């Protein structure tokens, strides 16, 4: 009987090979030939799934987003108190373990690779900004956020903090360990939330 190939599984295999090549060789080393070799496929087999290099990169980055979204959706569905829930989500955006560190490094490499493709880059930035705004609006709805805050300004501040921390983790991983990251984010969130919220659930 002919061997049945799970095409989606194969596409994910190629995407993960792409991540590995980017991590080891940078975007300049992420050629179709190198990725095919890492995935254990011929060039023809790889091109069967992805006709162009850009098509492969887009799929690989969508898989990064899908992995993060899956973890975040589990947090959203949890019974955590509002403040703890938002903290947990923010700690999925900032890399604090080898898996999320690898994903973030690949993501930033792709962001810089597409920095001249303004339509692609703008969409990615806008999505993260909207996510930060949604978290603050959720805290406001739950009456956790200080009432006098300017949501738009706080969104900019939180976005800058989280994006900056993510970059610092990649560039200064020894200094920016998990404990420091948690403290910095919690310090900021304590300043914009109502006193006493943090002890809930302890």
UniProtKB/TrEMBL annotation:
Extract the SUPFAM superfamilies matched here.
Homeodomain-like, Tetracyclin repressor-like, C-terminal domain
A GO molecular-function term, please?
DNA binding
Domain of life, per the record? Bacteria
Q: Tell me which InterPro entries the record gives.
A: BetI_C, DNA-bd_HTH_TetR-type_CS, Homeodomain-like_sf, HTH-type_Tx_Regulator, HTH_TetR, Tet_transcr_reg_TetR-rel_C_sf
UniProt keywords (A-Z) are: DNA-binding, Repressor, Transcription, Transcription regulation
Gene3D superfamilies membership:
Tetracycline Repressor, domain 2
Could you tell me which residue ranges the HTH tetR-type domain spans? 8-68
Give the DNA-binding residues. Answer: 31-50
Q: Is Repressor tagged as a keyword? A: yes
Output this protein's name: TetR family transcriptional regulator
